[in-house]
Amino acid sequence: MSEDFVLQLKNIRKEYPGVTALKNVSLEIKEGEILGLIGENGAGKSTLIKTCSGAVIPTSGKIIVGGKEHTHMSPQLARENGIAIIYQEFNNVRELSAAENLFLGNPIRKGIVIDRKAMEREAEKAFAQLNINIDPKALVGDLTVGYQQMIEIAKAIQQDAKVLIMDEPSAPLTNAEVDSLYKVCELLKSKGVSIIYISHKLEEIFRLSSRIVVLRDGEYIDTLQTAESNVDELIRLMVGRELKDTFPPRPPAEGEPEVFFEARNVSGNGNKKVNLKIHKGEVLGLGGLVGAGRTELAQMIFGAVHKTEGEFFLKGKEINPKSPREAIDLGIALVPEDRKRHGALLGVSVKNNINMPIYKLISKFSVINSSKESVTTEKYRQELLIKTPTIHQEVKNLSGGNQQKVILGKWLAANSELIILDEPTRGIDVGAKFEIYKLINTLVENGKTVLLISSEMEELMGMSDRIIVFCEGRITGELKKEEFEQHLILKMASDVQEDEE
Amino acid sequence: MKDIVIARLKKSAIWVVLLLLVVVFTAANPRFLSMNNLFTVARQVSMYGIASIGMTFVILIAGIDLSTGSIITIVNVMCAYLMVNMGFGMVEAVTLSLFLAVLIGTLNGMLISTIGIPAIIATFATQTIFAGIAYLLCGGTPIYGFDPRFKVIGQGYVGPVPVPVIIMILCFALGSFILNKTYFGRYFYAVGGNEEAAELSGIRVGRIKYLIYALSGLFAGLAGIVMLSRTNSAQPTAGLGYEFDVITCVVLGGVSIVGGFGKISGVIAGVLIIGVLTNGMVLLNVSNYTQMVVKGIVLILAVGFDTLQKKRSIG
Ligand SMILES: Nc1ncnc2c1ncn2[C@@H]1O[C@H](COP(=O)(O)OP(=O)(O)OP(=O)(O)O)[C@@H](O)[C@H]1O
Ligand SMILES: [Mg+2]
Question: In chain B, where are the structural domains located?
Fold first, then answer.
């Protein structure tokens, strides 16, 4: 009977010091099937799929592939059996070309020299096969994350993958890129490739998969036929309780709005003459496509990149932060978009991460008040439901979503007045998302001001009081709450203008 | 369960190595384990120990300081020159030379942080420069004839314990205090782990680098003073090659060369291993050149172990 399955995991258990990441989880996938794998942050999804490549060695359990039973896999064995994984935070070599990345590890050679021409030719073919338009000569570092992702997929196909496993592939992608990801997945499925697809975005799961496996707290919960299931059921199984509203209601801001922050004619970092006002106690949403200049504006406000022109005003006073430290001392916080590079200190404990911006404040003669340090950490661990065995755990050992929560906690602890959130819920599960939305509301109720950058349309419209849309470094529109409409925002976001000068 | 045991073992591996060395040398020559000899070992490593504190900080932020040896030399020569040729008192001379050491460290910090020269090149250049200046200052000949009280620092005893060993222990305590109890320690680990993220967490990475290289200069200077007092004369090549041994101690002690990871307790073990190894080999009449070979191999083993470990945890 196991002949039907191309890959079977049986009773996989994985223990880490202090955590049991997987408790006897089983899963199997048929040929040409797309299997959705869902669960909350820290449920064990990434750990489970890592056992298929040997990146994680199970404490017990069996992996059946190619008619053979294994107690654990190795990268070599995985390749021989056509198993390819695109990790949650994948890495490719930014200094190499697309073609070179594609053949990383087994380049085409002519004698002992690398045959670049042939690699570029083959790469072109591989990309064409997937209907993606990438110049094989382009440096990977210059491509968008979406294209980098596609290269990873092409690499897997190149290695003749029969089972392709993708861990939150859509998290860093724009909507258009997600569409081409769908197409690629369907194309592969029709060629008989089996796909395990992990995502926190349930609409993707419904769109692609035929069956769904749900994990919770390292345990196998259920397998569902996608056609017979619905969002509510999935959420209930994942979270273990009902979740009603997606966006918690917030009373509208009262009284005459007071301008809290203002940018006047700000240029630099790709932006041109940006003018905007943020009112005290409001959530201002910034909409636009990836690369429209929103993150770039945030970096300038936070002092990480210097503006070349224009002024910033905070509470009516001109400010000119030259470093993040100065911005933090002015009461500004930035939760950055790229959590691995900019957000978390991966090799440092949860406790130290959360307290990093406030260490000076909780120190006397530079000696840290360690009880305050722990109290703050515990507070945000509970508020944000950060899943970690202890606060001394290094952040790199947390699941992707929990790392994001640690970064959020760090900036909440800093108790800033203006909080810039750049894609705050990327990679975060539905339950925790709701908690974060509630938190944004609490912030606003406590008089804080929030600048929310989000590429998720529902989130942007659900959480903002006002939306300003960016396109190619300029502001192309502004919408009040009652004017919010998806197609309006999209139109403004793609409003390409000619340079006036 | 097995994982936990293995993790424990890895952490204490260096102490096991130290113990093994002690057992081997004692078996070869029972005199090794005498109280007297153990204090000799401690005294011999005291200068490595003192200088290793600064080097630990430097390596923690993924830097390197090759000027340690030269700072030791110039502090030797400068302090002696001030006392002998210029008639300065002991305290003034020591203070001024330590100040010079901090200044050189700060210069390293400037080259690395403000100008952006890679640490290995910047400190290599200052190494050459100050080795040269030290030589010029003393005209290539040793300076001696100090106030007899100056000897206490390097040769004195409190009860059975040599004064330099006490200074070393105080330095270890201070280093451990800075790393564990002050926010500077947290900053060092953060900068070593990810400079960009550290900056975005509000750490002024540039200033931290200045501070760290200045501290590295200070601890090297202190080691230089101890050395001057021990040898009672300033040699124009006093600290030649010292940085090599100090780096070996630190890396052996488990401070990761890629930054962000390491503890003073490990460094203490590293320092002791180098001390025991050197002393043991002397007792066994191993030639100087053979000793060099052995130490080089030890450095490769230490770094190799660290690198393999990293690779495995990424895979
Ligand atoms: N190397 C490790 N050391 C210790 N604990 C770990 C390690 N790797 C994972 N864990 C723990 O195992 C659990 C499962 O993590 P995993 O990354 O599989 O979650 P996930 O389902 O992928 O979550 P997310 O949606 O946030 O990515 C988490 O509690 C995590 O903290
Ligand atoms: Mg994951």
Answer: 44-299
